[in-house]
Automatic annotation (TrEMBL):
Keywords: Oxidoreductase, Signal. Residues 160-310 form the D-isomer specific 2-hydroxyacid dehydrogenase NAD-binding domain. It comes from Cladocopium goreaui. Residues 1-15 form the signal peptide. Coiled coil: none annotated. The keyword Oxidoreductase applies. This is Glyoxylate reductase. Transmembrane segments: none annotated. It holds the Pfam family 2-Hacid_dh_C. It comes from the Eukaryota. InterPro entries: D-isomer_2-hydroxyacid_DH, D-isomer_DH_NAD-bd, NAD(P)-bd_dom_sf. GO terms for molecular function: NAD binding; oxidoreductase activity. PANTHER family: 2-HYDROXYACID DEHYDROGENASE-RELATED.
């Protein structure tokens, strides 16, 4: 079905407005069900759009997703809309002034709390069990000629810690923090959580230092408006083998964290970044590619005590399905001259209500 939809996209009628889509095949196919014949979709790789002939560039009215090479936007004279497929968007200074910039304005307070909390628990499980690496150790020695003569002892292959009786520290006991604590408690973990205002209890306290010193995992779930909560002082208070799991970048001093990861035995699961293509809310990749295009530093990828991720916490399958519907409605609205949703910046030549587009 997906291949059929994509094939139909390439046979759109001449003169139909075109939207370039820098997302997966599945996303394009899903998006096609929401735009019908109103817009011709062209699937592009993350960096370029080989199928777009120069003669068709003037018919491109929208770009969906984040092209890694942002200069492609300068080659589209008729561009009216840069539509992000998620809650982040391209750095506004890199987008031509004539284009409106919009994002998928997901109501994360209703949708995102549970997926983010589940991600924190999944990160703790992955860190504790490390099943893929255990599987690689096992299969490399247990199958093939002479197996299992090269396998280490069973205790070496199978011993692992558990989450039971470990302490989950929750810095910021708001909606996400409460959801994390509920899940961690159900697993038999001890909970320490902090917030500014009581009433407090044996596990809900207002002492961040105590939480940092006693927690095996520290989930940083304070609002993104909080800056620098995790710094050199707070990192020094953590257990030597504790694991930091932030859900937003601003509360973390990444320079201090990087030093701690280099020199200590603490760990981190990093799904948020202070700059570059994975930065919330404004992304920047290039061109030309610069240090800003990197998550943080090339060296961090070589560390064994950090798990690097591209922002998976809230962006599950349901998220992307809802995104395709939302973006499809915006593309149809653009063509019909109706108001757009999720506008981050209006085009310099547009009013808030865009003029209906006309195509011959």
């Amino acid at each position: 079905m997906e291949r059929l939809v994509l094939a139909l996209l390439s046979t759109a009628l001449a003169g139909t407005p075109i939207a370039l889509v820098f997302e997966s095949n599945g996303y394009v196919a899903d998006l096609a069900t929401h735009v019908g014949e109103k817009v011709a979709l062209r699937h592009c790789s993350s960096f370029k759009c080989d199928e777009l002939h120069s003669s068709a560039r003037s018919e491109v009215v929208a770009v969906v997703g984040m092209p890694r090479n942002i200069s492609i936007l300068q080659q589209l004279p008729g561009l009216k809309l840069l539509q992000s497929s998620h809650y982040m968007y391209a750095r506004l200074g890199s987008v031509p002034a004539q284009a409106t910039v919009a994002k998928y304005d997901v109501a994360w307070h209703q949708y995102g709390v549970e997926p983010i909390a589940e991600f924190v628990i999944a990160a703790a499980f992955q860190w504790t069990y490390r099943l893929p690496s255990t599987s690689r150790r096992f299969t490399s020695c247990a199958f093939g000629t002479g197996a299992p003569s090269e396998c280490p002892s069973d205790s070496s292959l199978t011993a692992h810690p558990t989450l039971m009786n470990k302490t989950m520290g929750v810095l910021g006991y708001g909606n996400i923090g409460q959801a994390v604590a509920k899940r961690a408690s159900a697993l038999g973990m001890k909970i320490l959580a902090t917030r500014r205002h009581g009433p407090f209890s044996s596990w809900l306290i207002n002492d961040n230092d105590k939480l940092l010193a006693e927690s095996d995992f520290v989930a940083v779930t304070v609002p993104g408006s909080v800056r620098g909560l995790i710094n050199r002082t707070s990192l020094a208070l953590m257990k030597k083998d504790a694991v930091l799991i932030p859900v937003s970048a601003n509360p973390v001093d990444f320079d201090a964290l990087y030093e701690a990861l280099l020199t200590g035995s603490m760990g981190a699961v990093l799904d948020v970044w202070p700059q570059g293509c994975w930065h919330f809310p404004d992304m920047f990749c290039g061109p030309p590619y610069t240090e800003q295009a990197q998550p943080y530093s090339d060296d961090i990828a070589n560390l064994q005590n950090v798990l690097l991720l591209p922002g998976v916490a809230m962006r599950d399958d349901r998220f992307w399905s809802n995104s395709a519907k939302y973006v499809g409605e915006n593309l149809v609205a653009l063509v019909n001259g109706a108001p757009l949703k999720g506008v981050v910046r209006n085009a310099s030549t547009n009013a808030l209500r865009p003029t209906k587009l006309s195509f011959v």
